[in-house]
Amino acid sequence: MKDNRSLLRAIAVWAAAWACRSKGTGLCLPVLLLLLSGVAGAQTIPVKERFNAGEEVQYELYFKWGILMPRAGQATLSIKDTRYEDNPAYHYNLLFRTSGMFEKIFSMRDTIDCYFTPEMLLLRSEKRVNENDYYLIDDLKFSYSTGKTSAHSHRYTPSRTKIDTMIVSEQYMFDMLGATMYLRSLDWDNMKQGDEFPFHVVIGRDRINISFRYTGQQIVERNETLKYRTRHFYIDIFDDAFTQSKAAAEIWIGDDENHIPVKIRAKLKIGAAEVYYKSSKGLRYPLTSRVEIPRR
Question: What pLDDT does 42 receive?
Fold first, then answer.
């Protein structure tokens, strides 16, 4: 069975990841990739000018049913300097946990850890799912050869291996969280409405076809005194497991030099999951996309 709920959830939580969960599934995410140019070096992400090691961003997740919009959880994204296999690396981490009534009904503690080279080449992703005492690990190890990206996908519980396979792509291919770095690397000066960016995401034994579709600039209003200037993208998911592939989710990216998500919305069978930026520290640039309006 395809992990369609896992992918939608990942889109909803980014930004790292983020919506309605059930046993054996993962987080969802927004990602933006370019076509592979034919050499392994093209898989590196030109995003280092967007962040500093030490960056940390907080998000809140809500479920929306009609006029009801209860808070369902919170997520933290962070980037740190580290070492991977005794070499310098970046550690990109997502922590998600339920809150409020959702914590009492179905407790979730999900973590994704990604490791990049200093040149932002994805090396490994490990997703740990802890949902109502159900524990699952998805371990992805990436390797590169001319024109191809390979991922060794190992999914297991404490008692048995569920998946152990190799997946190969001639396009960009990432895990659900690591690919989000591409979203921040986009050159908006050279982008026009309708531009599409296809890529692959590895989930279990599946290679999911996804595309980001740029629509232009939009204003996100949080309340009467707080707004954000953003760039808006639809997320199209081309997979047989999805009844709706076009605009399955959408994301609003802050229109400043940081390029961090401000809002994410993923459609569910009933209602929608929405993720909102809450706070941040250690950003490389001022958050000039945030506009505060004085009360009258």
Answer: 46
